[in-house]
Design a protein that fits this description.
The protein has 476 residues and is an all-alpha fold. It contains 23 helices and 2 strands.
Amino acid sequence: MPALGTALGNSVVSALLGTALSVALALAAALTLTRTNVPFRNVWAIVLTLPMLIPSIAHGMGLVYLFGSNGIVTNFLGTSWNIYGLQGIVMGALLYSFPPAFLMLYDALRYENCQVYDAADIMGIPKASQFARITLPYLARPLVSTVFATFTLIITDYGLPIMVGGKYSTLSVLMYQEVIGCLNFDSGVAIGVALILPAILAFVADLLTNVQGNLAFSVRSKRVGKNPGRGLVGWVLLNALALFLVSPLVAFVVKYPITMTPTLANIDRDMVFGMDEYWINSLLIAIAVSVLGAAVSWLAAYVSARTHDKFGRALHIVCITTMAIPGIVLGLSYMLFFKGSPLYGTIGILIMVNLVHFFASPYLMAYNALDKLNGSLEAVGQTLGIPRKRMVLDVFLPQTRGTVVEMASYFFVNCMVTISAVAFLANVSHMPPALLISDFDTQMLVKCAALVSIVIFVVNAIGKVAAALVKRVIAK
């Protein structure tokens, strides 16, 4: 396929540019919230992660409504620019991949010890030298992990390229077109192999890097001195990043882009298309994956973290390997493997593919939590004659219950926003609402498409708030 080489090159270029931009801005935002006196830091930390709660295809749709030829910003400024192509994909990649990159770096900086900086100040070491010789070495491992995770996220996504890619073909879009549009499964498999290679290379590089020693310091928050100029620059940066969140609000206008009067009448129109049934199916899938996924990933993490035999190490490698499999490749694999079986075409296969697709991150949450517990607990329990089952239920599970809630929340949110893993497996009877965004946009039902994004965002926000309340209750 002559188009394969072009799509591969385009995917790598767009992923590299998007990764560089996302990681740089994520690092700047994380440093702003941890090293300046910008007000409402906790609020900003939440606002900057809100784009994670809507599908990537909704971000592309928002870019079109804002910066397209008839977009809100375009009309307001009286300018004309081309949002389609490489520039559109990179802008959308920033919006889609920035929140996870920000979270990884923000968490790392929050747990950095300030004592070494106090010593550097006493010794008269300039701030620039402190950043180069203290902060950057401390962030070496988190930065490497963030770069590879962001690159994989961008190169395997197809929601954004479909909306704003135009003639700039990428591997994920080419694979979708060959399988769905042309029913050419042989080409789809070949493209899937090409698509999975960069993700595997990034995964292996990240895995090898993490073998290095632990550079973390003992935890103590860093004291921030007053610097109005630096705080003002940080405030401007945070506001500019937060402006990307307004794009889905065009759902509540009378007729975009002619009449921008706010309205809630679009809800009735969506109900005519059977949105209520789709939402019930989507909630059932998300809840089932949350419960089953949290249970299975926690048990796998317990076996691999609390047993140090060959089976435990092999299980650990298998569990984290799922992180390197793009969702669109996983969906095509399930379609080919389960076609003709009783599971094919049911909600069950959607539950299974989502569980496998998002398994690695919750597994690592549980693995890290269980690995930090005292390594002699099993020996003490065995000495006292306590069965392993009672140790799990009475010791390990209560000690990690907060992590279990976070794991379930992660599964729920990602099941609501994913489109890549389920694109080849969903049918009309149980299509997740996220897949309807592109259908509505194709039919020029702008308000309906944007409203779906808003509802997904609201449902996920409610889920995150519920998880936070549960964690607070069980922590007492």
